[in-house]
Amino acid sequence: MRDHDGRAQSVTDQPADETMIDGVDTDRRAMMGLATGGLVSTLLGMTPTSAQAAAGIGLVGNAQAQPAGATGTPWWPSKYGKDDQVGATNLITPAKILDALKLVKTGKVYDMSHPYESSMPKFGERAFVLRIPGGPTGGPLGANNVIWHDEFLATEIGQVGTQMDGLGHIGMAFKGEDRSEMRFYNGFTAAEISGAYGLKKLGVENVKPIVTTGHLFDFVGLKGRNLNLGEEITVADLEACITRQKMPADAIKSGDCVFLNTGWGSLWNKDNAQFTKGEPGIGLEAAKWFISKDIVLIGADQWAIEVVPNPDANLAFPVHQELIAKNGIHIHENLVTAELAADGVSTFCYIMLPLKIKGATGSPGRPIALV
Amino acid sequence: MRDHDGRAQSVTDQPADETMIDGVDTDRRAMMGLATGGLVSTLLGMTPTSAQAAAGIGLVGNAQAQPAGATGTPWWPSKYGKDDQVGATNLITPAKILDALKLVKTGKVYDMSHPYESSMPKFGERAFVLRIPGGPTGGPLGANNVIWHDEFLATEIGQVGTQMDGLGHIGMAFKGEDRSEMRFYNGFTAAEISGAYGLKKLGVENVKPIVTTGHLFDFVGLKGRNLNLGEEITVADLEACITRQKMPADAIKSGDCVFLNTGWGSLWNKDNAQFTKGEPGIGLEAAKWFISKDIVLIGADQWAIEVVPNPDANLAFPVHQELIAKNGIHIHENLVTAELAADGVSTFCYIMLPLKIKGATGSPGRPIALV
Amino acid sequence: MRDHDGRAQSVTDQPADETMIDGVDTDRRAMMGLATGGLVSTLLGMTPTSAQAAAGIGLVGNAQAQPAGATGTPWWPSKYGKDDQVGATNLITPAKILDALKLVKTGKVYDMSHPYESSMPKFGERAFVLRIPGGPTGGPLGANNVIWHDEFLATEIGQVGTQMDGLGHIGMAFKGEDRSEMRFYNGFTAAEISGAYGLKKLGVENVKPIVTTGHLFDFVGLKGRNLNLGEEITVADLEACITRQKMPADAIKSGDCVFLNTGWGSLWNKDNAQFTKGEPGIGLEAAKWFISKDIVLIGADQWAIEVVPNPDANLAFPVHQELIAKNGIHIHENLVTAELAADGVSTFCYIMLPLKIKGATGSPGRPIALV
Amino acid sequence: MRDHDGRAQSVTDQPADETMIDGVDTDRRAMMGLATGGLVSTLLGMTPTSAQAAAGIGLVGNAQAQPAGATGTPWWPSKYGKDDQVGATNLITPAKILDALKLVKTGKVYDMSHPYESSMPKFGERAFVLRIPGGPTGGPLGANNVIWHDEFLATEIGQVGTQMDGLGHIGMAFKGEDRSEMRFYNGFTAAEISGAYGLKKLGVENVKPIVTTGHLFDFVGLKGRNLNLGEEITVADLEACITRQKMPADAIKSGDCVFLNTGWGSLWNKDNAQFTKGEPGIGLEAAKWFISKDIVLIGADQWAIEVVPNPDANLAFPVHQELIAKNGIHIHENLVTAELAADGVSTFCYIMLPLKIKGATGSPGRPIALV
Fold first, then answer.
1. Which of the residues D125, D150, D159 would you substitute to probe the B interface, choosing the one with the greatest number of B C-beta atoms within 10 Å?
2. Distance CA D133, CA A174 (A)
3. Quick check: B134 contacting D, CB < 8 Å?
4. Chain C residue numbers touching B134 (CB-CB < 8 A)
5. Do C142 and D96 touch (CB under 8 A)?
6. Which residue of B170, C13, C337, C340 has the lowest C-beta tally within 10 Å?
7. Cβ distance A140 to B60 under 8 Å?
8. Smallest Cα–Cα separation from B163: which of B352, B325, B359?
9. Given CB atoms, is C125 within the 8 Å cutoff of chain A?
10. Phi and psi of A48, rounded to 5°?
């Protein structure tokens, strides 16, 4: 049905060691993982130049923007067609929906989202500012003296709290600091998608409602402990979970969503500095394993699903690029997975209904697991 | 299981003619319906005093805030208990969810939401302002030259576009302009719920995920035309729909949601001035009929579900008060119902997952109908 | 020209001991001054109820909202007339301006403002969020390929950074938690001035441009050290400054502005937690001395000009009330005064041009001293 | 003192006809000036591609982004040094300030700003959204029952209402749609100045306080009527004003500011659609005349100081580029000049104190004229 090999090929074409920068100070590389919580905050809002200065001692190891032309192989057109803006949610077919609903036996709902509030951990300079205008906002009107409240919210709406990355969120600058070639999902260029008032293409409004089968990988159960900052989840870990959780070997099917219970979410709103300093998560190896299963979305109880800093100190959020830009697969961050794990739920009906915010890079939501 | 009569009684205790103001100029009453689109915009953002001045010629007829003490009977405690903040979504039980999922036969999804964009009709002074910081927002970082986009949104997030009113949205000022007694759902006072940085109680984060049975009342099909501004939907209309759509007489059950296809939504982003000038919808009679069915939510393809201006020119948004404040029933506005109607879908599985925005008065969403 | 005695009388009518709450736990009172930086942040954004709970151990001592009816004597009408919204800037006459300009001998400019940036200390939950939409925001257009940048700012614009309080900022709830009588400058009620979309009266747009004589009181020079948190500046201190700085005894004249160099500003953007924890400043005694001089504005190198916490643990920001609400005198916060003090400048031409933001409670600005 | 000729030369090096695009449809050129108010709004927020599509019938004539490499001669380094970020406000010296203050004879203040309010004309998709959080925002606290109001503002703060353009606002894309070479004042590149969270260079915080001599050119007085949309002010008009207003031939000196009273400001908040549709103003000829006088700032009672659409239909806002990017001269828009003109004031002390909003592209303000 699709040319899966071709896509996998492009991944193979970009071996990790080709992306290494010669002559990097290995001492600085050794310092990776020493980032303070503040560093993450600073880094993400930082200018590229200063980010490079900090990179050697922080979140992204000594990753530095690459000289022009060095970034690798084109990943487009997408398997969904050269004009596609929908990505992997194309796989959410009526048949997938019917299959997923069959998993619902009791009607129990697991709420997989955190409340949105200003105290939640936020990355870089992102903000969450909510105000209630007036007290009340309006009224009284009429003999019935009706009054009402509104709320005014100023925030990176698709990139704070429990949020799903859309396809316009992540790209690659093929020529590094020279911004003349920046590419996104399906090869769309910055000129094609960028806009000060909303992305012109790849806005999250293109994403289909997600009602499909979800699978939880419980690494806390597997390891008997929360995973650690910088701990990479391997394919062997994934397979160990499948065995331990008694899932069929072929449990993960095209159109499914997968979730990681790492324990990192236990820090949410309790130790935000530690939460944002880095995280355990998957690396490129496990990402490619999931990609080979043709999934729609990967979610986790931490803020990037991937291991941060990456064990390859030259790489900054490579899993985001691999999933979103190269494969049209969504990332769902800051989920609540602990209750599912506590109840031993491995497979469920997952429902996430992304807001159609025109030109937005992601969506908040209230994802649920139904069993 | 519950004392339904008691609640209905409190409704009966407040007859419409008790809320009339003596000596109102009937000529001014006659002018109702002459509002311009601009008036609505102005009114909702207007001070109570100026709103009263305009009321005689506008949106809310000659409705005027009532003198102190005149507003009627307490409606609390709620049937869900004196401390309840969940309201009618308490009725979404596992059993209801299982029942609703049984309605899904084909896996077809109807998207019932509009895109969120600055051009959409907005009420009063509400705003929707989206910006993409930077181009891109961040990067390039790493040898992989990752770049990313965020979006920054400033808006009345729970009160623009396709949105569901939470229980803190609507209340009553018992003493009119004297704000010393303002009451909300379950009798919570302004002192208990108001907060400049988010409602302290009745925030939309309390609402449960909604997965239940939905019913569409197709008035366009019934009348063979779109309904008109100020046209009230009566109980007779509801019953005629049930008959015409071949629904069982007892189709509407406790815990269900109901939807109105009025045709008014055809104006969305086409003639926003007309769309916001007023609307067809239910009045108190039909509202009470739905309340007697113990529903969770009423939605419509217009902006308030209720008829505006109200045929009783003294009343301003009385259905909002009746449903939200007095009965804990949600209102879902600016829905897309035309496609369901076109396909003759009367009953379906309705899924709406309200965002848990702490202290917010409502929620955006991407409601869907599954059949 | 004015009935100064009458106004002073109203101050005398409200002796400090009348505002004491009987039976306050003196142990809790003793804990005042122990506030953490975080407490200030929390307090200002906090609900009244929780603020009371924290009050005994924090910023405002054990100050508690007073039972209804206890708050004291009406302070209106203002000496500028019962409808006045201009306040003490009425005193900025052409003659005052000419007098002030005569002080300019060298043309040297002292910039008395901090840059506005997200890292600056902010009080309570106030936010400062700036984004550059797009990169660039617009263009290229034309054969000349013009491009442009805008900025988008979301903030409490009149209440962050170097800012001047307008007359609608501060009031008194005469009945405590019962909000049925809240009064502001000139006795305007909450019903008269409140509005969700901007104050209806007393907005900062009413304030006149300020070009007048300014005087710096250099307490750092006087004491040979920075003042301490909670250290009250007394009238004796003011008089000692006048002597030390060789100002004439009658230096402070009607229509002048006065400024406090406390040294607290040295913490700005260096130790924000300490900066916001409290501060040295004037109490009611010195405030009344300045009021008796008929000044227009008091500014300081800290965030409230007044001593925080107040030595009378029952009082919360009483100087704000005394100056703004009762006397229409402005407060200018977070100024830069160190350079003036270092150069031994005591008297200068002060220029502050408040933005006419309709309905705002204060104004940012770039105040300067000209010598 | 400076190499003025060299700079003038670079202007001469770029004759208008070199910037013409061959083969432009002259019929489309003839349509310029037919723009609707809505077109301006749309255009400024529009994507470059769609802007080009509209250009032939609208605001910027048939201006189209130029093919790569065609845009002309470098204009850097600036005469103030290759690292300068201050621009023409470098000319505001103590001596200039003293000279300007000598013009003040009566102490009369002319307020040259409009109030900032949501109803004001705004360009493109710019927004102005003000809310008062809570009612009140905080309190009551203490036995003194203090309460307070804040305001929350979300807006393009430096680019709405009466506002002064900073040096980071305007640039040129040397290669048109290929954004690999975008230059600003002093040749700073996009890579050097762009930042999602504020400009990294050329932020308005670099601008010095402006206290200098101002001159009003009263074209309404000269012509006996308001100027018309698209009417270009010529050097002959400037000279006619000087003669009619009895200014010395050499009235305009280095470091001065100049202002245009066109009458267009009479539309402000009265006919916003017409106000924003285009405007009378100076073209490149008059701009260069002013540049030759070594001024600091040009202001006007309209929204861009320059004629819109430009008589050369290929050019989009060329005067902005000439003044800001090439010469570091500020533009002050949406000023109130009518009262000065009515009183026959030609020369005055001008005071504008730009806010130091770090990384912002412009500043609001409350400019005044003192006489």
1. D125
2. 45
3. yes
4. 131-132, 134-135
5. no
6. C13
7. no
8. B352
9. yes
10. -55, -40
